[in-house]
Amino acid sequence: MKKLESRHWAFLGLAIVVIGTMLLNLEPDLDVSPDTIRMHAFIDSLPAGSIILVSFDHEASALPEIKPLATAFLRHAFGKGLRPVGIALMAEGTAVGYRLMEQVAAEYHKQYGIDYAFLGYQPQYIAAILSLGESVKQTFPRDYVGHPYDSLPLLREVHKLSDFGAVISIADGNMVTHWVEYGRARFNVTVAAFVTAVMVTSYDPYVSSGQLRAMVGGLRGAAEYEKLIGIGGAGRRGMLAQAASHLYVLALILVGNVIYFTTRSRKGRG
Amino acid sequence: MDFGTIIAGLLTLAILTFLYRDNPIYKLAEYLLVGVAVGYALVIAWKSAMVDLLFTPLFGQGDWSLLLPLILGLMMFGRFHARTSFISRVPLAVLIGSGAGAAVPAMLGPRILTQVSGSVTPLVGTDGLPNWSGLIVIVGVLSTLAYFFFSREHRGSLGVASKVGTWFLMIFFGTTFGYTVMSRMSTFIGRAEFLLTDFLHLTR
Amino acid sequence: MSRRVAQIVCAVFGVLMFLLFFSGHPTAKAITLAITTQYWQVIAAFALIVGAVSFVRVNVKAIQRRQDIPFRAIGLLGMISMPVLAIGWGIGGSSPFLWVFENIQAPMQSTVFALLAFFVASASLRGFRARSIPAAILLVSAVVMLLSRSWFESTTSSFLLTASDWLRNYPSMAARRAILIGIGLGSLTTSLRLIVGIERTWLGGSR
Amino acid sequence: MPPVPPIAIIAESEKWFDASKLPLFVIAIVVLGVVVLLWLMSRRGSSFTPRQIPGLKAVEDAIGRATEMARPVLYTPGWGGDIQRPTTIASMNILSQVAEKTAQYDCTLIYPTHDPVIQSVAQEVVSESYARSGFADRYRQEDVRYVSSSQFGYAAAVEGIITRTQPAAIFLLGTFEAESLILAETGNTVGAIQIAGTDSTIQLAFFIVACDYTLIGEELFVASGYLSGDKAILASVRAQDMLKIALAAFLLIAMVWVTFAPNSGWWKF
């Protein structure tokens, strides 16, 4: 067997820390930030039966953060009786979005075509948003599975972007900007977003200007949202592992420096 | 547990074995991933570029302006043979030229001028006290720019300025590293969640 | 000869795109959109076919040389199966194409991404040593940032949060600005050289 | 809540020349003039050597070391860029220099990329560099290879190539995204000298921590001029420095101005 090097120990330690804390199955109590409260209140304020557009604007690699966020949100939406219509403006969001909506809808015994629908993917996101503003049906003549637009009762109730109660973008990149700058500015639709942690600071200015109605970010945001809707999920389970992994990285930095300074002082003496 | 989850779980473990060292199981997973990803990209490009952007409007709706991109695209096929590969230089020139032309205003506007004017703040606050944070920003921007000054060796006052610039650079690198660790860790937490919950059923 | 033609094409498209930016006319916008979507994407799609063919060639050659036969075969099989599945059963909701993407490609991609967490750990062990003043500054700012985000908000001292926010919003942002300006300048002059034709390396051209 | 002003796209004029963009146009033309003028001057013999950049001194040593150890050199431009991006062109310029040296030393150069367009251009660049050093026969087209467009497919492939071919020198020069640290740490385990450089500000931090030398942002654009002595690039470097002085002056004047006249806005872009 090959000799284990220091990096192997570092790897092993991380695996133990993360898996260990996850196996504890603890869901720590946490303070909910005003951002998350604002989003929750906004979704709550939509009347039951409202049709909302949910846009999956992310890649598959962002799933660890996106999935808990989207799941918590969809649970809230379906639980409240909102009727989401899904689309994707990034290719990899298509399959992910379709599956997620299918799964959460099943938890709430919702029916495809009546309580929710999924339209699929359109490339050229700016063109797609502009075109949705004019006509949803022309942008997506068929849904993702191939049904003609008018064959689904839910879709017969919406014609253009402004008919939706809100647009919720679930994003790991710049797409929220386009929803705000085109969707909101031109067609006056309310936009809110669930985003990965790295994107939060980029969108803060939009939230404070009111262009973005509400925003929730990262695994932490998912955990807080789960707390508000009272259903545990991947977010809260991941929180403890997240904090533990940070402390672990700090410990590694410390150990690295201790090793460096002890070997250096030994060399200095020798 | 469905078949898909078993496959996904095994492949997840196969990739993770790389952390110990390279081995045939990882290698097999790697070749499979690369192959499938090339195939996936082909299918998506065929549908979203070839069919939706080119063939449907060109042959379906008679938009003949698309003949030019079609010809340029076909010229790429010159690369199939060493002796005809020179033909592909034309479509490459289109991409490089138009990219450069688009980059000039994009770089000058948002990249350079907006960044400079974004740093402009009054030196004294409304309360009559010096605007320390604004001053820090200005010192940081100018000293880091001094670090990027190439025409002279960094000695004398330029040397001092560029040294201060490296300190600012280090603060930037430190904070980005610290800040990004959070999202990097969640990538593994996400996979661990999949393995423990969906694949091994150890947590709920 | 072909280099000359390519250079002229490069210059024409460069000047055209540059000028189009300064026009607000609907026709100008339509041309910009046509170039950046149709031209760019269509040429890239044809190039992808060339790339896929070269991928097949490299692997077939290796198999002929009897190198890594099982691995190369699995790679080729993976590549060919995707278009075959797509042609046979489509790419919609419950197609086998999507099944392969969801259960083979996506999990492996996210696991390669997850390796990053481990590499962050090994890099932290090795790369953050306070060898010099700049290295110490790097270390301290990373530690402040990490500490401020490690506990739950109620227990994190507000001093750390303030310090980390200040670091990020002022000194760190200043350095980032200067880096962006520098990159902007480098990109700007590189693009200008391309347009006027004094940058020819991409043609394999001599200096 | 105050009404949100309409976005620029709607407010924009629909004239053939949008007058609001005039300042940008003028500045662009002036910069172009400066670059071309300095280039013409340098062709007449006004010489100029830029300051030392530590990572660049290491380039030749790294290739020499690879040759001595009979191990290859690996060069990859990252997953984030395409050929339309000026950074990719800057990376091609450095590639051309590295390829000339590997040709002379008869050292294998492996170039994996995620983009078939970049692959095509790199093949032209490398084959021409080999021909220029007089060793056209040493060039092997399949060493410049396309390894899948997907980010982590590319990362896995390059990771595999690094562990199996054990390159002694690794050049990570171009636009990188999250794959940066995966590649840099894998390169570390095989003990390669690593020279990185990118315009992605977030990834710079990871390269600084994990690589031997890192070209920070603009240094990547300057590097090829330094390595080749190419007069056009060196003229650009000087132009960039002159612009930096102008920008610094602009910034200082605007700061003083706005201190005394807080409502002025002439400096806004």
Automatic annotation (TrEMBL), chain A:
It comes from the Bacteria. The chain crosses the membrane at residues 9-26, 246-263. Keywords: Membrane, Transmembrane, Transmembrane helix. This is Uncharacterized protein.
Automatic annotation (TrEMBL), chain C:
It comes from candidate division GN15 bacterium. This is Uncharacterized protein. The chain crosses the membrane at residues 40-60, 72-92, 104-121, 133-152, 178-198. It comes from the Bacteria. Keywords: Membrane, Transmembrane, Transmembrane helix.
Automatic annotation (TrEMBL), chain D:
Keywords: Membrane, Transmembrane, Transmembrane helix. InterPro entries: DUF6754 (IPR046642). Pfam families: DUF6754. Residues 14-261 form the DUF6754 domain. The chain crosses the membrane at residues 22-41, 242-260. This is DUF6754 domain-containing protein. It comes from candidate division GN15 bacterium. The lineage of its organism: Bacteria, candidate division GN15.
